[in-house]
Amino acid sequence: MTKLFLGFLFAGTLAMRAEAQSLEAHEVGTGDSTISNWETTWGSYDRDHHQTKNLRITVRDVTRRVREAQLLVYFVAHPLPTGNRFIYSHRVLPVVFGNRIEITGEIPAASIKSNEQNYALSGRSYSSGAVMDGWIVIGRVGSQVFEARASSQALLDIAHDNGRQPESLQAMIAAAGIHDEPVKPVAETPAAAVPPPEKESTGPPPQPPPQQQFTTLTKALSITLPYGKATLQPGTKLLVISRNAQSVQVSYGSVSKTIPISMTDLSAQ
User: Fold this and answer.
1) Greatest CA separation for the chain
2) pTM for the structure as a whole
3) Do residues 87 and 57 lie in contact, with contact meaning Cβ atoms separated by under 8 Å?
4) Averaged pLDDT for residues 198-227
């Protein structure tokens, strides 16, 4: 079943993209934190590094004839100290258009960790874990792929399997043990599932759901994450939960915190 799926997905379909459907994908939030386990005054240390990403994906169907599409999202990393790229996290998500031309939503990547040890007196250093390379997003309707996007040209070459990179997406999918399974729309998806239009009613038209608001840090912010403390640098985008004239409650992953509004770009609004 997996080989059959991969054949349908990649055997020339990327070159036969249907122009009526398209997708865009951009990083809207990255989090890099370093936790010092120990260090000495002469330069030895043991440090853990954590990385996270958020993607904003827009899917379009200018024909308004496609009821449902699918997004296949692959987050790619490489092991330390060296090794081939691999898929460390993936999502298969339904996008229900509901007669809309465009659907936009966000996808968080799972956190990934690496460790670095340096022993200055002996001149030895060690590393373990993995480091993010980026992401690949593929849009399809049924078994027909209409577009692929990636965070770099190298990963896009891998998605197209054009031979420019030693790795192929097919091999990475097989190595990760990923299978193509039936996908049903769920309540919480990055591209919000929109139900089919209802029959005409004499009542007032339904109101669209409120759009999420984000703010950008203008000052460094220290927060406590499940795996330790981290410092978010200026430029990091955070989800706004609530705000008033003096403060704003923001969310970073599963952590929420109330901070002075002067630490964000909302103070200029």
Assistant:
1) 80
2) 0.60
3) no
4) 64
